[in-house]
Design brief:
alpha/beta; 5-stranded parallel sheet; Rossmann fold; two-stranded antiparallel sheet
Length: 236
C-alpha cells in the first residue's frame, strides 16, 4: 500500500522535485527568519523523532498554542509525520476555554509560544492528560524548552498512513456552545489544495502568499500553509 501520509506530499516531495533550497516560509517581523523546504523537511523529521523518543504514540494529540511563526509548520507537519495528531488552537482564547479544549482533546503534549505562556499557564493546572509542555523560547519552571526537546533527535521517516486516517483536529469557535473538535483526514488536505487552492485561487509555484487569517483557522491553515505548500510557493 502506498504511504498516504500527507507530510510526504506537502513537505518531503519538494526535495525530490528540486525545491529544497526554496524559501517556504518567511517571517515578516522580528528577525525576519526564513525556512526553506529542505530545512522544513529536516526539522519536521527531527520533531517527529523527538515525539517518538518521548513515547508519543500514534494518534495521540499534540496541542498547539503557537503564533504564526516558523515553528508552527514544523510542529504541525512533524506531528503528522510521527503519526500523531496536531491540534492547532486559537491563540486569542481565555484560559478557561483552553482548559476545556485541552481536557476534551486529551492532548498528551502541548506546544506554546513563549509570548502566550501567561495566558495559558493557569489552563493546565491539574490537567491529568498532559505529560509534556514545550515552550518555544525560554521555558518557565515546570515546562521544557522546545529547542531542548528536539535537540539530537533522530530524523524519522513519515509514519505509514491511509488517506482516510485522521491527520489533525481543529476546534470550532464555540459561538453556539463549547468549542467542538473537528477531525480531518490526510486526504482532505490535498483535496482542498487541488480544488480550491489550484482551481479557484489559481495558486502557482512562483507566488508569494500572505494570509490575513491566522494559521490556527481552517481558512488560514489553507491559505498560509496547505495551498502554497501544494505547489511549492512561499508564505509570509
Amino acid at each position: 500500500m502506498e504511504n498516504e501520509n500527507a507530510a510526504i506530499w506537502f513537505v518531503d516531495r519538494h526535495l525530490a522535485e528540486g525545491r529544497g533550497g526554496k524559501v517556504a516560509f518567511r517571517e515578516a517581523d522580528g528577525e525576519k527568519r526564513t525556512l526553506t523546504y529542505g530545512r522544513l523537511a529536516e526539522e519536521t523529521a527531527r520533531f517527529a523523532g523527538a515525539l517518538v523518543r518521548h513515547a508519543v504514540r500514534r494518534e495521540e494529540r499534540v496541542a498547539m498554542i503557537v503564533r504564526d511563526q516558523l515553528e508552527f509548520p514544523v510542529v504541525f507537519w512533524g506531528a503528522i509525520k510521527a503519526g500523531a495528531i496536531p491540534v492547532p488552537l486559537n491563540t486569542l482564547l481565555a484560559a478557561p476555554v483552553y482548559e476545556t479544549i485541552l481536557n476534551d482533546s486529551r492532548a498528551s503534549i502541548l506546544v506554546v509560544s513563549q509570548a502566550l505562556w501567561d495566558d495559558v499557564k493557569s489552563a493546565i493546572e491539574g490537567n491529568r492528560f498532559l505529560r509534556t509542555v514545550l515552550v518555544i523560547g525560554d521555558a518557565p519552571e515546570g515546562t521544557e524548552s522546545y529547542q531542548d526537546f528536539v535537540r539530537d533527535a533522530d530524523a524519522l521517516v513519515p509514519a505509514e498512513a491511509h488517506g482516510d486516517e485522521l491527520a489533525f483536529w481543529l476546534y470550532s469557535s464555540g459561538s453556539t456552545g463549547a468549542p467542538k473538535g473537528v477531525r480531518h483526514v490526510h486526504s482532505s488536505l490535498k483535496a482542498t489544495a487541488d480544488t480550491f487552492g489550484r482551481q479557484v485561487l489559481g495558486i502557482r509555484e512562483t507566488d508569494v502568499v500572505f494570509s490575513v487569517a491566522k494559521m490556527f483557522f481552517a481558512y488560514g491553515l489553507g491559505n498560509a500553509m496547505s495551498f502554497p505548500m501544494s505547489v511549492g510557493a512561499t508564505t509570509v
